Amino acid sequence: MTNNILSLFQLCDSNLPTGAFSHSFGLESYIQEDKVYDKETFFEWLKVYLHEQLIYTDGLASLLVYEALTEGNIQEIWHLDRLLTVQNLPRETREGTQMIGDRMLKLTESLYELPILSQYRAEIKKKNAFGHPAIVFTMVAHGLEVEKQDTIRFYLYSSISSQIQNAVRAIPLGQTAGQMITHNFIPELNAAVDKILQLSKDDFGIVSPGIELSQMQHERVNIRIFMS
Amino acid sequence: MTNWTGSLSLDLEDRKGKTVAKRVYFQGALKVMRPIYLDDSGQVCYYLLNPGGGYLDGDRYKLEFTADEGSKVTLTTQSATKVYKTPKSHAYQETTIHLKKDSYLEYLPDPLIAYENAHYKQKNVVHMDRGATFLSTDILTPGWSPSGGKFSYDTIQLVSEIYVDGQIGVFDHIKLVPKQQSVSGLGFMEGYTHLGSMLVVSEYTNNAFIDELYEAIQLEQADFKAGISKLAVSGFSIRILANSTQVIERILNNCHKLISEKWLNRTPNSLRKY
Questions:
Q1: Which residue of B has its CA nearest to A218?
Q2: Has residue A1 got a pLDDT over 80?
Q3: Residue B244 pLDDT > 70, yes or no?
Q4: Mutate to test the interface with A, among B94, B128, B172, B186 (most CBs of A within 10 A)
Q5: How far apart are the C-alpha atoms of A103 and A120, rounded to whole Å?
Q6: pLDDT exceeds 60 at position B253
Q7: Which residues of chain A neighbour B226 with C-beta distances below 8 Å?
């Protein structure tokens, strides 16, 4: 429903206090190694991050969770929550994601009275689930009756836009450069959604070795402005 | 689909401190050589081999291992796994491993070499009891082509699933498709040609030991890039990017040696055959 889109916009706002601004998901390792140093190199990095990691993890999970919610197959959601967590081999990235998921759940629980959110909380309390932002986001979007492909599109936009904000601060880039990147990245996001709609469960969890390695290496970075 | 090009199954048990086979079975293009005891620790070592000398179009291989309580085993290969071009259907290998409490299984295969236009998929599934230890390594080379070009294979896909007490604890999925990705570049291989991995699940894992392994990795002199991190379950993973099999083997061997010394109280012998 179109009049619910604004409600979902709220979750895409980079001011949403989930702590996403303290996680670079390995970007900081590339910045420190001088591999990412301007808007062109950052754009390249962002493309790999989206098309080679995010679509097979968070993006595909969002699609599968949406379908599970439609079918009322709740057990499948807890299974996906676990898979998302255990496929995330770098500790900082895994724990960071869990923290963001937890905060987003807390926030949305106070904004919406969706039973599925309380169920998610109960599963986390029982240690049957870990908490993941893609799952919380998809639960809210499904509750707001936003369509599947738009749910994925908005989720990817929110992840990518917080990474762009991180890059603006860390590289650093000007605010205008940040907006240019966001603008030029929109076709990439749309292409990613089209690709995710074609994926199946067999594609879940594919990672790009370099990005993953940089996320592991971040644990050993001495001076840091990000937690991952 | 029960038509396997080769299948192999090996069940192990501990008999008074010595690990022996309870049952050995193989057929088709897979074979296990006679057991070798490299020292007096009781740990057995088996060399697996593919008498055909390489994986061909549409080949399907199935391996199954079971280690009973207290048994200790090293599994390795006799030479690199070569996957030749697969014009019709990809080559596939599936390995299932069951580990009982206090068993130890390490799977240390030689590198994978995928030839021009080869498509290979590998799936490893491990079911372990808490208290067992599982260690595996993988080395992916840039493959081989007559022109000497790198990354001329079609697809390499490796999936690993490790279940601890029935619940999934590790999921690892690597899929390299050089024609669709800029495999050598940023975010992928970062300009390197070889990728090495080690996955370890064990209750013995702790942060101090991970730090020790990290220090050991840094001793390598050649150009490489590596990361080590704690898993969601008790264990850790290592990824290494380098420009030769030898560099990755050296780093993995150093880590393996530390693990054997600390956890098994034994110094491993070299497994390589050339």
A1: B227
A2: no
A3: yes
A4: B186
A5: 13
A6: yes
A7: 213, 217
Nearest chain A residue to B169 by CA: give it. Answer: A86
One-letter amino acid for residue B36 of the chain:
I
Task: With beta carbons less than 8 A apart as the criterion, state whether A210 and B186 touch.
Answer: yes
Decide: B56 and B88 in contact? Cβ < 8 Å.
no
Distance (Å) from the alpha carbon of A50 to chain B's nearest alpha carbon: 11
Using CA atoms, how far apart are residues B54 and B84, in angstroms rounded to an integer?
7
ipTM above 0.85 for this complex: yes
Is residue B273 predicted with pLDDT exceeding 70?
no
Nearest to B172 among A35, A82, A89 (CB): A89
What residue of B is the nearest CA neighbor of A35? B186
Q: Contact at 8 Å (CB) between B162 and B133?
A: no
Query: Are the Cβ atoms of A86 and B214 closer than 8 angstroms?
Result: no
Q: Is A44 on the interface with B (CB under 8 A)?
A: yes
Question: Of B172, B189, B230, which is closest to A210 when you measure between CB atoms?
Answer: B189
Provide the token pair at A40.
């062109």
In chain B, alpha helices (H): 207-218, 245-259
Domains, chain A, in order of start with CATH, read 24-209 (1.10.4190.10)
Pairing of strands B31-32, B44-49: antiparallel
> Which residues are within 8 A (CB) of B153 and not within 5 positions of it... i.e. 6 or more apart?
B83, B114, B115, B116, B117, B118, B119, B120, B143, B178
B269 pLDDT tier (thresholds 50, 70, 90): confident
How many CB atoms neighbour CB A96 within 10 A? 23
